Amino acid sequence: MSNDNDDNDDNKTKEDKQRVFFQAVKDGKIKTPEFIVWKSKQKALIAQYTDFTKANPYSNSIFAQALPPYISEDEFIKYANYFPNYFTEEVRKLTSPEKHDRATTLDKLFRVTNKNIEVFQKISSAIRRSYTDKVHDGEHQNSRGGIVIYGISSEGKTFAVNFSLSYFYQFIVHLKTRSNYKNSAQPDMDFVIQITWLKIICPSNGGPISLCNNILSAVDALIGSDYEESFKSSYGHRTELDLKIYINRVKQVIKDIHLGVLVIDEIQFIAHGESKQQLADFLVELSDEIGIPIIVIGTLEVISAFSELSFSFKSKLTKDNEVYFEPFEPVNGKAPKGYRSLIRLLFKKYQIGNHPIPIELFDEQEKVLSTATEQAKVESISDIFFHETAGITLYTINLFILLQQHINLLEDKAKRNARKAKYQNKKPTPPKTKSVNEIKTLIKKTAKQSFQINRKYLNAIIRGDKESLQKMKDVDFREFRRKDASKKFQPSVDIEEAQEQYEKNVEIPSKLKTTLDTYGISEKIADEAIKAVMDGYNDETEFELITKAMDLCKKMVEKPDKPIRLSPHIERADIDLGKVQDELEIIRAFCEEQKANKKPGAVPDILRKHGLEFNLEAELDL
């Protein structure tokens, strides 16, 4: 291993995998980390220690203290939200092939919802509880519990878990020589490894031996060990080993790496395995004997799969509740507010065509049609997206990407026709912004062409077609649009308001700073100008904000001694500070004389004496 404390050397893959952690570092929530490059070429975080005993008096171990600070719901939104770079006029000037590819960057969009916050809170609690001290014998017989996260395909379950895990740096190293928390037990070795989480895929055959191999292989890839190969070699690569031998080996490895939580994705595969009860018993044993929480992720097939398994398995794996992911639910047959907000964001920031629909036009038709009755059969753009995708986030994003690519191809075709008309000395048809109705037709056409394989699946969900849903393995009609009991624990934060604040406080200032930096404006002046502009922000366009910021920067460079603003709504004032001081002296003299005179009737004369008289009729131009 070798020391490496240079953040600039962090490979992009690691930052993506631990996005929320590194965003918290940039925000100052986590102090600047130091790393060690391990023999696996992975960067291990040198443990930083925080006293969490106020939150939990049993969090005394070095492993509990090495976890990152608690963060609020608003902070998680700030760190986890990921919006690809907006499609500006400059992007719209790219070539057709470039724009076609640029549209695909939208599949990286991650927009935090209440369900994402719920998942984060449960995972955070599970990891922290995993490292709390056990204080009495009875507790040794109690597992650390588990979480089941399930729902129909493509609803963002895995995305939500990945972003939650990304706040907890996966690979931590505790060095023996440290000054922090001297009262904590010192490790016996030069270093101790802590893996806060391990995420694997459930084997497709649902077998416990395959799962054991997956766990050993994942540990080897992370820390550069050879647990899997050495274990197989020690038994001569025999395939008929007793399951108990495998289980004991995995349990020992989990203890060696001080694992926080084990995450198993695609857990519905156990429904197809011949040894599913054996696998279930293995997970219960891990939960009981090792004391680590187990988080499983799967489609609605887990409902039927779990129903056939032992009660001990179901009770252990759902100890920390279930989290059910469902599509956006319609309101009177219309798209709900949260879904409309997503579509508005896409049309406001990510139209790639040369003639995008103005957001004002989008808002106007949404306002009118969102309140129309279901019987009216009049749909807004959001309603059409909702009914074509069943409100499933993945399909919604994909449909918008395909729509932009379709528009791009149509515009490219129009350019070719214009060149052809020019060559034939004909008058070309001038380009124009497509009407809302044209866009609606194009959305339906694109969806029809693109979702043919999944159309029955989407239609069944939209209609609530029980007969069709019963035939689909990962959809259980009994749970269709089921209200999850855990909604009573729904966070109090207003997601829509938080999104607006995120854009105002983070995204727009960042873009302004990048622009001002290209003009060579100093960081200090740029920061002051951006703060002043955003204090008076009133939903101006990016161009208007840049113009205001540039104007303020120019004035500050020319007259650095003058205040930047009198208030958030009054631009930088051209104030003569010397004159202001003289006027203050006049007011002070008036106050002193009036105080000594003590006659209210003398006030007008004293004001006139000091040049402070006020002619109301003249001021009002009466």
Automatic annotation (TrEMBL):
Pfam families in the record: AAA_22
Q: What is this protein called?
A: ATP-binding protein
Per its UniProt record, what InterPro entries does this chain match? AAA_22, P-loop_NTPase
Gene3D superfamilies hit by this protein:
P-loop containing nucleotide triphosphate hydrolases (3.40.50.300)
What molecular function terms (GO) are annotated for this protein?
Answer: ATP binding
Question: Which residue numbers delimit the ORC1/DEAH AAA+ ATPase domain?
Answer: 143-302
Assigned keywords, A-Z: ATP-binding, Nucleotide-binding
